[in-house]
Amino acid sequence: xxxxxxxxxxxxxxxxxxxxxxxxxxxxxxxxxxxxxxxxxxxxxxxxxxxxxxxxxxxxxxxxxxxxxxxxxxxxxxxxxxxxxxxxxxxxxxxxxxxxxxxxxxxxxxxxxxxxxxxxxxxxxxxxxxxxxxxxxxxxxxxxxxxxxxxxxxxxxxxxxxxxxxxxxxxxxxxxxxxxxxxxxxxxxxxxxxxxxxxxxxxxxxxxxxxxxxxxxxxxxxxxxxxxxxxxxxxxxxxxxxxxxxxxxxxxxxxxxxxxxxxxxxxxxxxxxxxxxxxxxxxxxxxxxxxxxxxxxxxxxxxxxxxxxxxxxxxxxxxxxxxxxxxxxxxxxxxxxxxxxxxxxxxxxxxxxxxxxxxxxxxxxxxxxxxxxxxxxxxxxxxxxxxxxxxxxxxxxxxxxxxxxxxxxxxxxxxxxxxxxxxxxxxxxxxxxxxxxxxxxxxxxxxxxxxxxxxxxxxxxxxxxxxxxxxxxxxxxxxxxxxxxxxxxxxxxxxxxxxxxxxxxxxxxxxxxxx
Length: 515
Description:
single chain, UDP-N-acetylmuramoyl-L-alanine:D-glutamate ligase, eleven-stranded mixed sheet
């Protein structure tokens, strides 16, 4: 699924109107009807008071359409207009008149804090104050209205986007954004839904198809691409019957230091579980017995030093290598990395302490092999690209770094984002339970395994990230978020592969109790 900018979505509206002879008013009716259908399906005529707060633009017009349709179906509806300016959109005014023709309870025009209504905790709030056209933060009594609604215990449903939130710009005022319980967004999700600073305002959302021109949506280059099961399923490559371990690549895992050999075990095991034909672990001498015992399938090569990695040599020819997990930042390790980066022909996954070594020694940046995959968490990323002002500055800095070094950068987080050639790929799988030690080591091994099997660096990163999250979902559903451990992720990689081809079953209604 594509993620478009606010300008692109406005252009899509215009193209749809021109190509399909649909007026903006018709599009508004279509959007409002979809919101009404969603509500009606769930409310089934229940007489729960619905409070609809409308602005005076097109988002407010959407809210008026919803209100009119609810009233026509006999629902108990209260409509309020945030009357903060005399400038109103044409479509808003037409729908305002339509409301006045079907009910004596005209929308209440709000002009100050004194007009805020009482709202019961069991009521429903529909937020249609501002849409994606908002260009500055709400101020004055309108900001107070947003804060008032946020303070209510009633369910808050936002139309298209929570009021006060920008679709693809930084949050201007965090105190002036609706904290929606649920958002019904038109045609495509917005980039703001997936970034740490703004995603908290959109904990849950659904995409409502309003029939924008399919050709425009298909041919337009989006801001970002969303990766979910349908996309991930297309990445999968079926194995050939007449094949052998050599067909599925050899992964080298360069990992570990005294007290952190577990990182090497996790990455190596994950590489095998993700399909690598062979895995060799390169570790300090202190890790030899641990690897041979914990993972007898792996081959082990050791450094001359007992406690750290000082020189990466006597290694086999491999297709891919995962390097950095738990290796520390000793000067000897940095020197070893510099030599390895300069000489290796393998595709690399560079993670954890290898990233910290790059941040400590600028000369390492110059020898990062082309097409490497870097997998920083936010702290590691900040050490690589510098301090950022906001999430959008962070993305721009990461794009610049990826372009300068011809590499793929995976920004790990709640919605991990892969950055490559000025493009963004946002992962949808995973959960908070995966915020646990060793989870990143597992992901590095998984990416390296796909690289070794011939997946290109972008595809390997995006696919492994999805599978990693899918495995985490499987574990958390069985054991809870709190009980997820990195080893559990590895043991469920196989189920994550299988889940790609499972048909999602719709929720079944609860059986009625016999009298």
